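Lab notebook page, bench 4
Experiment: in silico fold of construct C2
Operator: M.H.
Input chain length: 293 residues
Purpose: comparison with the prior construct
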Amino acid sequence: MYTYITYGNKAMQPMVATVMLYYTWLRVELKRQSIEARTRQFFPLIVVGLLVAQFFLVIWPTLNVSGTISGQFCYNIDDSYETERLHGWFYLVMIPYFLPLAAGVFPAARLALKIHSRDRSLLDSEMAAVRITLAVVVGYYFFHLLYYTLMLGREVESLVLDRSHWRKLLGLHVWYITRPMFALIGYGWNIVVPLAPFSFDPDLQPIFPGNWINRHRLAAKDVESKNSICMSDASSMARVRGAMAMVSEEEEEEGGKQSAVFDDNKNTAFANPLANMGSDPEAGEYNQSSIVM
């Protein structure tokens, strides 16, 4: 059981990261909602498939371990040097690190180029998903780089040394210091995974610990929003002043035109048509031409 859990955990982590990487890449490249819908529909089958793949990957070294009759000790059924080296290459070097690294280089590079070029075809939700995926995947290979590089050197030494000299090499104090120290650094990935959504998802950034992680970014956004509000208020006030000045100029022009018309009418005389009506001298005198004052 210990062998199954140890090797199975080393195989499951990169498998989950690789599946997540390919899902995000296909969703962004193909631009089809059916991919997300099918993934949700068949998600239980995907989980079962990962567990089955883990089982078949680690069943070989697990069946090679047996216990004593007393149950106090375990031993390898096939204790040959070739089997030990094969187990080391497959379960300490290739499966947990270098094979998934080779499989994930192309989709990770494509997603990184989309972020670098600021592809406008990506929605905000898609951009957040890409950043979270890259943080999880790149974080795994970054934090485990030292440990699996050490394991690679260990297995290379097993190819050029015989078993006795190789055992003597593994007994040096440098292995007892570097291996647990590099393994401890690898646990940093277990911190990155839960914090990645709070760092890049806009809906989770205001929630703790997202507001603590993005405190400087949120403060910069608040300052930028306040500056934009002040600029918009100033521009609106300028537009209002301009409109009021135009209205006042129009009113002054209309007032000048009306005064000019009034002055022209002051000096204009018109003939009274009733001046020549009748023979009454008083009526004629009353109905003489008049000038508007």
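Observations: The beta strands are 65-67, 74-76, 269-270, 290-291. The radius of gyration is 43 Å.
Next step: discuss at group meeting.
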